[in-house]
TrEMBL record:
Protein name: Transporter
One Pfam family this sequence matches: OEP
Annotated family: Belongs to the outer membrane factor (OMF) (TC 1.B.17) family.
Recorded superkingdom: Bacteria
Signal sequence, renumbered to the chain: 1-24
Gene3D superfamilies (UniProt xref): Outer membrane efflux proteins (OEP)
Major location (coarse): membrane
Presence of keyword Transport: yes
Source species of the chain: Parapedobacter defluvii
Compartment(s) of residence: Cell outer membrane
Length: 444
């Protein structure tokens, strides 16, 4: 019965493995239909390879810590030996030469060692907290980069999608102008110049539509890569232009708090670990103390078959004290080196603070400039629409020439594209300011 149940269990496990291999590709979650920016960010934080790698690194760090601290637990070992004394050692006792031992000797030894005082293990115990902190900060940094990069890629797609919509509207408008110019030419009202110009404008606009469409395909592929979505899975995004515009404003009165920057906290953790390294080099002057206990079974005999007929047990308990006295000045030099490295890290902190201040000032200046460009572009769109509509009426009445209409149409398209580019620039600039301040939200 036991063998049958064991075979059933083995078949069940094998069947489960086959199913997992056969349907493993279906285990990857799909992106929600008509996903908005927050859906895309949440998916990336759950599925991006770099985020998973950072989380795995945290688990690896935990195993490394556990491995380093395992030295505090008893270390138990078993050894076995066998010796064949081809020439049995002898000794002279009372003028007589006496053999010491027998031909065949074997022993089985079980020994337990326990560290009591060990500088290396003391350093590992104190460093464990900072190593965990360092690994967690690496994960946080990966999540911050994910939010910023995914958001920028999403905004870039939004800009391109809106640009395509504008181009489609332009094509419809130019097509109507082409038909109108053709009709006027055929009726002899105007010469063929207006008709040819409309054809050229339409061809250029269609070429621009093709270029933006092809680039948009790449941008979707790039976003898939960023969030960890496989290339064969669909991606349908929803865009709320009004919501995007409502998110462009930023509190520019905030000041830099270095502790909010993950890079600053990472450097502080490195400093703490370096300080522990200095302490460890001082601890190397301390002695190390360990206890041991062993129990052995000795077997011996002049003939191999008789060797295990009887055993002669022995057991020892003891302490081992190792006092380092002189190592050629190595420990003193290691302490000095570690202190110099601490001083160097202090200068790294100063340098990082200066870099953070520069990054913030540059990001804030860029954001404010982009925000002003966006406001100007928004006003220009309204003005260019009004100008185009006016000139279109005047052209229909025969007051304005087709060249005037074409110029107005070009100005309208240019201002619309400029508006989209400035919207993307101000949204991306806001992310750069938030990253410089260390206020990127990664907990959604």
């Amino acid at each position: 019965m036991y063998r049958k149940s064991r075979n059933k269990l083995a078949l069940s496990i094998a069947f489960s493995l086959v199913l997992s291999l056969a349907f493993g590709q279906e285990s990857q979650p799909s992106l929600p239909e008509n996903a908005n920016l927050q859906d895309v960010i949440n998916y990336a934080l759950e599925n991006r390879p770099s985020v998973h790698q950072a989380l795995i690194d945290e688990e690896v760090g935990e195993e490394e810590i556990a491995s380093a601290l395992s030295g505090w637990f008893p270390q138990i070992n078993a050894t076995g030996t066998y010796n064949w004394n081809v020439k049995i050692p002898t000794s002279v006792i009372g003028g007589n030469v006496i053999q010491l031992g027998q031909k065949h000797v074997s022993a089985a030894v079980l020994q337990a060692d326990q560290q009591i005082l060990n500088p290396g293990l003391m350093q590992a115990s104190k460093a464990a907290r900072f190593i965990r902190q360092q690994n967690a900060l690496n994960t946080e940094s990966s999540r911050i980069n994910t939010v910023v990069e995914v958001s920028k890629a999403y905004y870039d797609i939004l800009t391109s999608e809106e640009q395509l919509n504008i181009i489609k509207e332009n094509i419809e408008r130019i097509q109507r102008q082409l038909n109108d110019a053709k009709a006027r030419y055929e009726t002899g009202i105007v010469d063929k110049t207006d008709f040819k110009r409309a054809q050229i404008t339409l061809s250029n606009t269609l070429a621009e539509q093709k270029r933006v469409s092809e680039l948009l395909t790449y941008k979707y592929a790039f976003l898939k890569e960023l969030i960890g979505l496989s290339a064969d899975q669909p991606m349908n995004l929803s865009f709320d232009n009004a919501a995007m515009e409502s998110e462009i404003l930023l509190d520019t009165t905030l000041t830099v708090d270095y502790n909010e920057r993950v890079e600053f906290r990472q450097l502080q953790t490195v400093k703490q670990l370096q300080h522990l390294n200095t302490q460890y080099n001082k601890w190397t002057f301390l002695p190390s103390l360990s206890a041991f206990y062993n129990y052995a079974w000795d077997f011996r005999g002049n003939r191999f078959p008789e060797m295990f007929d009887a055993n002669f047990p022995r057991s020892v308990f003891g302490l081992t004290l190792n006092i380092p006295i002189f190592q050629g000045g190595k420990r003193i030099h290691e302490i000095r080196k570690s202190k110099l490295q601490e001083t160097r890290l202090d200068w790294d902190v100063v340098n990082l603070k200066n870099q953070i201040n520069t990054q913030y000032e540059m990001a804030l200046a860029t954001y404010q400039a982009n925000l002003n460009d966006w406001r100007v572009a928004r006003e220009n769109v309204a003005l260019s629409e009004d100008v185009y509509n006016t000139i279109k009426l005047q052209y229909d009445e025969g007051i304005k020439t087709y060249l005037d209409l074409m110029t107005a149409e070009t100005d309208l398209r240019t201002t619309q594209i400029s508006y989209l580019n400035s919207l993307f620039a101000v949204l991306a600039g806001k992310l750069d300011v938030q990253r410089a301040l260390g206020t990127v939200d990664i907990d959604n």
